[in-house]
Automatic annotation (TrEMBL):
Coiled coil: none
NCBIfam families named in the record: PRK06105.1
InterPro entries: Aminotrans_3, Aminotrans_3_PPA_site, PyrdxlP-dep_Trfase, PyrdxlP-dep_Trfase_major, PyrdxlP-dep_Trfase_small
Protein family membership: Belongs to the class-III pyridoxal-phosphate-dependent aminotransferase family.
Protein name: Aminotransferase
Keyword Acetylation assigned: no
Species annotation: Thalassolituus pacificus
Keyword list, A-Z: Aminotransferase, Pyridoxal phosphate, Transferase
Cofactor(s) listed in the protein's UniProt record: pyridoxal 5'-phosphate
Record has Transferase as a keyword: yes
């Protein structure tokens, strides 16, 4: 494609495409940022400018861009079996191999995998499985689902309802009323004056206990939790939270669902975030890093105990009646398997832990003393930089000041991409797990320069 073709496409873009999560008028006046190529941790736009992508696309390019072995795995599978469905007991070898591999690395207790196309449908599937599981056991009223403020679980009708970021509900009739909302477990912004972390944790668990009591456990199916909130601000709950939560939910026959769509596949320096944070899931949603973004695919996990109930239901009803055209897609399964093997072969999960420690160290070294940086948080290669207007009071900037956007735009001018999370005044970092220490230095210095320039 030559330059004039590209210019034409850039000019036409906003006339023909409704972009996801984008400002339509900004697109109409400025056009899109057209990305035409990528390799390693770098992306390249139509003007030939290269950027260090410290977000890994949308928190998904764990293996890095342009990996020939992943393209090859897709090519081989597509040539052999471009597609066949997996409804009505059909299968293909790639999805079986992938499921076996995934179960060998999954958190203890998870025994079966359901494949879909993305994070929203994985969570949607698990909402339905939670309902179905309870209904098959005679608990037809167990329909409510608990989710937290500042959670992000997707944008389908049901998962946008679970999402606890108000922007995703405005002028939509959402959230649907099956959702019950509880406090975001962020000590830095949500603790009461004088409260320590243990007291904060107790208060959060008490709130959930009270909600269960007032709603009635017989009406509640599940609790959804990202081990670390990603789009909601890179938020890790206080120590002991997940253990207490699990005990409380188990007492009331409420399923605990881990949304590992961002945390899974090495991001935090372990295969999954749940074991790291003491979260024992009954079900788990994954996507993104499953294929490192090379193919849209999700894997939702359930325990054998849940599966036994679904089996009895299938015997009774004739089938487990849920699925997608692309469930278990052979090309997706082939590239997911190749991706997991690549992460293993190159030791990228360990590298995420080691280079993650370096990233956090550098962020602290350079930004701790900055008056506009309140908290640096996260684990492994997932980090958040909290911007504050008043450090002593932990007061966040006014949304209208657009600090995260201003800083991330200035970082971009310096050749680095970070993700602004405007509603929580945070800058998010989740680079490919292949990022080097030199690239981490570049990223941290760009952040420092941009913050100093803009604030
Ligand atoms: N869950 C989490 C934690 C996510 O961060 C996302 C997307 O960013 C989703 C679910 C939804 O995934 P998708 O956009 O693939 O539907």
């Amino acid at each position: 494609m030559d330059d004039s073709d590209l210019k034409k496409l850039i000019a036409e873009d906003a006339d023909v495409i409704l972009h996801p999560a984008s400002s339509i008028s900004a697109l109409l006046s400025n056009g899109p940022q057209m990305i035409c190529a990528a390799d390693g941790c770098m992306i390249e736009d139509a003007q030939g400018r290269r950027y260090l992508d410290a977000v890994g696309g949308l928190w998904c390019v764990n293996a890095g861009y342009g990996r020939a072995e992943l393209a090859q795995a897709m090519k081989e599978a597509a040539e052999k079996l471009s597609y066949y469905h997996t409804f009505s007991n059909a299968s293909n070898p790639w999805q079986v191999q992938l499921a076996e591999k995934l179960l060998s690395i999954a958190p203890a207790g998870l025994g079966k995998v359901f494949f879909g196309s993305g994070g929203s449908d994985a969570n949607d599937t698990l909402i339905k499985i939670a309902w179905h599981y309870h209904a098959l056991r005679g608990q037809h009223k167990k329909i409510k689902v608990i989710a937290r403020q500042q959670a992000y679980h997707g944008t389908s009708v049901s998962t946008a309802s679970l999402t606890g970021l108000g922007g995703f509900h405005k002028e939509f009739p959402l959230p649907l009323d099956f959702v019950l909302r509880v406090e975001c477990p962020h000590f830095y912004t949500r603790a009461l004056p004088g409260e320590d972390e243990a007291q904060f944790c107790e208060r959060l668990i008490d709130e959930i206990r009270q909600l269960i009591n007032t709603t009635g456990a017989e009406n509640i199916a599940a609790f959804f939790a990202e081990p670390i909130h990603a789009a909601g601000g890179i938020i890790e709950p206080p120590a002991g939270y997940y253990q207490k939560l699990k005990a409380l939910l188990a007492e009331h026959d409420i399923l605990l669902v881990a949304d590992e769509v961002v945390c899974g596949y090495g991001r935090l320096g372990s295969w999954f975030g749940s074991p790291l944070l003491g979260l024992e899931p009954d079900m788990m949603a994954t996507a993104k890093g499953l294929t490192s973004g090379y193919f849209p695919m999700s894997a939702a996990f359930i325990t054998n105990e849940v599966w036994q109930v679904l089996k009895q239901g299938s015997d009774k009803l004739g089938a487990f009646s849920h699925g997608y055209t692309y469930s278990g897609h052979p090309v997706g399964a082939a590239v997911a398997l190749a991706n997991i093997e690549l992460l293993e072969r190159e030791g990228l999960v360990d590298k995420a832990r080691e280079n993650g420690a370096y990233l956090h160290q550098r962020l602290h070294d350079v930004l701790d003393s900055n008056p506009y940086v309140g908290e640096i948080r996260g684990r492994g290669l997932l980090a958040g930089v909290q911007l504050v207007a008043d450090k002593a009071q932990r007061r966040l900037p006014d949304a209208g000041d657009k600090w995260p956007l201003k800083v991330s735009n200035a970082v971009r001018e310096l050749g680095v991409i970070v993700r602004p999370l405007p509603s929580v005044a945070t800058l998010a970092i989740s680079p490919p797990l292949t990022i080097s220490c030199e690239q981490i230095d570049t990223l941290v210095m760009a952040l420092q320069t941009a913050i100093n320039q803009q604030l």
